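Annotated sample (chain length 157).
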Amino acid sequence: MNMVYPYWIRSQFVPIWATSTQDALELMRTSVQGERNDELFYDQLIHLTPSQKQAEVITSIRNDERGHNQMFRQMYRELTGHEVTGVSNEVPEHVNSYIAGLQKAFQGELSAVEKYRKIWFGLPYGVYKDTLYGIILDEQKHAAKYNNLLIQNLPGN
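Output written by the structure step:
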C-alpha cells in the first residue's frame, strides 16, 4: 500500500531553473537590449526575403519584439523604480544569407524562451508573471514561424 506523506514532512521542491527576484530583474534589464538587437537583426533579414509574404511574417515578429522591449522596460521600472539605462556594446550580428539568418533567428527565439522562463520563476505572482508568460508564448510562436520559413526555403520547395 502506498502512503502519501503530509506536506509538512516533504522537502521543498525547487525547480532547476528557479531564480531569485534580483537575478530575474537583472535578466529582465539585459533582455531590453536583447529585444532591441533582435529587432535590428530582423530589419536586416527583412531586406533579404525572397517574397513579400515572407517579409510580412518577419515584420510581424520584429514588431512583437518592439512591444516586448517596451513591456520589459515598463515592468522593470515598476518593479525597481528605475529606468533601464545604458546601451549594451553588443553589436547586432550581420546577416550573411537569408537561410543562415533564419537559422540564427530560430535559435535566438528558442534561447529567449529559456531566458524568459528563468525570469518568470523570479517574478511575483500577478500581472508581471502573466505578461511574461505572454511574451514567452510569443517567442515560441516566433520560433514556429521561423521554422516554417526555413522549411519553405529548403531546396526543392
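Annotation: The first helix runs from residue 21 to 46.
Annotation: The domain at 21-82+92-153 is CATH 1.20.1260.10 (Ferritin).
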